[in-house]
Structures are given as structure tokens and as C-alpha cells.
Amino acid sequence: MKQYLFVVCGVSIWHGECFVAQAPRGKGMSQGNVRALGFWRCWALVVGGAIGSAIFMMPAVLVSYGGLGLLSWAAAAVGALFVAMTLGNLSRRVTKAGGPYAYAHAGFGDFGGFLTAWSYWIALWTASAAIAIAFTGYIGVLIPVIGASPLLMIGSGLFLIWTLVWLNIAGVRESGIFSLATTILKLIPLIIIGSIGLFFVDTETLPPMNPGTTNSAYLFASAFALTFWTFVGIEAATVPAEDVIDPEKTIPRALIVGTLTIAAVYLLVAFAVMGMIPAGRLAESGSPLADAGIHMAGSWGGIAVSIGALISMIGAFNVTLLAASQTAMAAARDRVFPRIFEQMTRHNTPGLSIVIAGILSSVMLIMSQTKGLVGAYTFVLLIATLTTVVPYAFASMAGLLLGIHDKNTSPARRRREAIVSVVAFLICMWVIASSGEDAAYWTLLLLMAGVPVYVAVTRNKKIEAGAIQADNNSPEQA
């Protein structure tokens, strides 16, 4: 049986490339095994993997947390740095492609690899639903009749999902070309608001440190779980490791510099928006950055920002949906997911895997609408965050385990890396503990749903292995 690696799709902001592998183990994606990704392309993967819909909705989500929301965002950046350093350390020891999945599999075997792949797959299609929810808020700015009708908002979200399902089934090349324009254009409204917007900030408009009577420590911890979501995706540079030039040095540097870049963009934009839009209006806004654009340049400013936001979300959804289908396909090829996910279309795409991801995203979109736009987005992104944190936690413990047994590294460096891994693991646990009962309950339910899947897949593997052995031992083979 051929063994395959998998690479989650990552998009380079500068080059607009979509990296998806279906190659035998030990071979990179580039033709002739030429490593094509240097520091800046890996940096772009980190930034492009993390910046999607979150920044366009997060100011409205965080304003109720006041100044503590911004502080929690800065703290989440520090936490993301520890995760980035852990992933960077792992990339030196596990140089094959696959990112967190490969690390968990190396550290904990098949079940650890399965649980990581299962959780990551859930995170991806849940994130797709979160992006679709944010999309409905911003399209309502451009087409007010949609914003006034919950039914039309759901319809617009479903239209986005199934248009991009069709695009991804049509072919990875078409999906990658489509990503080129969307990923370059996504930064334009952020750069404008994060720089020029600072001149429109009114310090009287900024929310107080703690706007209510809730305990500050509890408020800070709750906001931390929300803001950590905005850094999910930084692992994108670890996934195509076999195509990275000098991956042992390039990937760790790209992870750290990319995470710092993301943090700077987020904090500047959030500060500018919170300093322009009064807290009451901002908390009810389904398109906070569009409101900031209106404040800066009138209705045309709102339209321009909304168009930029929609382009960003469409691009982010395209990449996330592709990643979800490719993750499931690759896990199926490794015989840790049901084989239904590896069925290919005539376009050489995992069509059924794409359709399943689209169905699950649609169900999540429809179910979440009972909470209102901002509430729905908050709930779905918490589930997406938790299901991504699980692979991070597995990777952190794999880093500790593999580091302890690495005799090629000096004891002093192993101790430093062990401390980083433990801190990253504790940060993951903090995110889980801070997420709230509802999100934790649904996340646990989704993860536990994978156990019978793993049992069934393992049973089928044993049956297949037995059948192969029986064929080999048959008289005809003698």
C-alpha cells in the first residue's frame, strides 16, 4: 500500500500560491524535489494562515470586555509565541510534512495522530462556518435588504459555502488561482484602518478597562480564549516542511516573526476601531470595520472596507475548505480516517470530502443563527479555537517527549525547549478552561464522536491486513 503525506493548503500573501501535496512520503511538493520556500514565503504562510475573518469581527466581540480585551489580545500574542516556538522546535526534529498531525503521530502513534487529525478537521470546517457568519454581516452593508432579513443572511452564507464547494471540486489549481487576488487584497483595509485610522481615534470613545462589574480576572481570562482564535493558523508554515529551504532554521524564524507581525496588525486595527466607534454601537455591529470606514470617509469608506472584508473572507473560506478536505483525504490515505474521504473526482480532487465539509459547515451556520450575528460568531469561533488548541496541546507534549529522548541536542537546550513546551501546553489548557461550558461541551462531544470512527477504521485495517496475509499464504502464492 502506498504511503502518502498530506499538506494543508497555505496561501502566500506575496506570491498567492496554494500548496497541496499528494506525493509519496519523502518527496516534496516541488518538482524535482527542489525546496522552493524560503523565509519570506514561510512568513507569508504564517500571516496568511492566521489573518482571515476574525479581525473584521473581533472589535465588536471584544468591546464588551473593555480595555481588558486589548490586554488579553496582547497576552494571547505572547501565548501564540510560545506555541510558535514549540512548533519551531518540533520542525527541527520532525522534518516531514504534516505539521501538528505529523508531530502528534511521531510522539504518540496512530491514536494521537488520529485525534489530532480529527480535531484539526473539525476546527477547519467549524472555522469555515465562522467565516460564513462574518460574511453575512458584511454583505448586509453592501446589500441592506440582506442585512435586514435573517433568512437572506443564512441564504447568503449558504451561497458562499456551496459556490466554493463547487470551485474546490473543479480543481486545486483553480482554487489556488482564485486565492491569489483574495489574499493580496485582504491586507488593504487593515493597513488603511490600522494606520490612517489612528488619526481618527478619540480617547473619550475608548472603552474603560473594565466596563462592568464582572471580576477583572474572569473577564481577562474569557477574552483570552476569544483572542487566541485570531492566531490560529500560524502552523501553516510547518505543514509543507519538505519544500522549505533549510527548514530547521527557516520555519522557527518565520513562525516567530510572522506571529509578531500578526499581533501588530491586530492590536493597531482594534485600538483604532475601538477609539472611533462608541462601545454601544460597536457591540451591536455586524460589520465593525465597515463602520470605521464610514466614520473615516463616509458611506464610500464603509463600502470600500466591506468589499475588502468580503474579499478576505471569501479567500479565507476557500483556503479553509480546501484544507479541511485535504486533511481528511490525507488521514484516509494514512488509514486513520474512513476511506470514503479519499475518493477522487475526475478533476483529481477529493470531491466527497469537500462536500462533507460543506454540509457540516452549512449545518453549523444554520444552527448558530439562534444566537444573533455576534453571538453566533463568538460561539462558533470558540469551538473552532478549542478544536485547534487540541492539536497544539498534542504537539506541545510531543515536543516535550521527543526533546527528552533527543540525544543530539545539548542538555541545556533540551531544558529550555522543555520549558517552552510545558508553557505552550499550559496556555492551551488555559484557553480550554476559559472558553465557557457550552463551547467546551460541544467540543468534547465532537471529539468523542471520533472514537467510534477510529475503532471502525482500526478494525477495517486489521481485516484488510488479514485478507492480504491470507492471500500471501494461499497455495496459489506458494
- Terminal Cα separation, in Å? 21 Å
CATH-assigned fold name: Amino acid/polyamine transporter I
CATH class: Mainly Alpha
Fraction of helical residues: over 70%
* CATH homologous superfamily assignment: Amino acid/polyamine transporter I
Number of helices: 17
Sequence of secondary-structure elements: HHHHHHHHHHHHHHHHH
Structural class, from secondary structure content? Answer: mainly alpha
Number of strands: 0
The domain tally reads 1
CATH architecture: Up-down Bundle
| Mean pLDDT metric | 80
- Gross morphology is globular
Radius of gyration: 22 Å
Low-confidence runs: 1-33
Biggest sheet character: none
How much strand content do the residues show? Answer: under 5%
Q: How would you describe what is shown here?
A:
With 478 residues, this protein is mostly helical. It has a single domain (31-454), classed as Up-down Bundle (Amino acid/polyamine transporter I), CATH 1.20.1740.10. The protein is built from 17 helices and no strands. Helix 9 (216-228) crosses helix 15. It is globular and about 80 Å long.
Defining key terms:
mainly alpha
Concise summary:
The chain is an all-alpha fold. It has helices at 39-50, 54-62, 67-93, 100-142, 144-147, 150-170, 172-185, 187-195, 216-228, 247-274, 279-284, 288-333, 351-368, 373-404, 411-434, 437-448, 450-472.
Q: What is the topology?
A:
Elements: H1 39-50, H2 54-62, H3 67-93, H4 100-142, H5 144-147, H6 150-170, H7 172-185, H8 187-195, H9 216-228, H10 247-274, H11 279-284, H12 288-333, H13 351-368, H14 373-404, H15 411-434, H16 437-448, H17 450-472
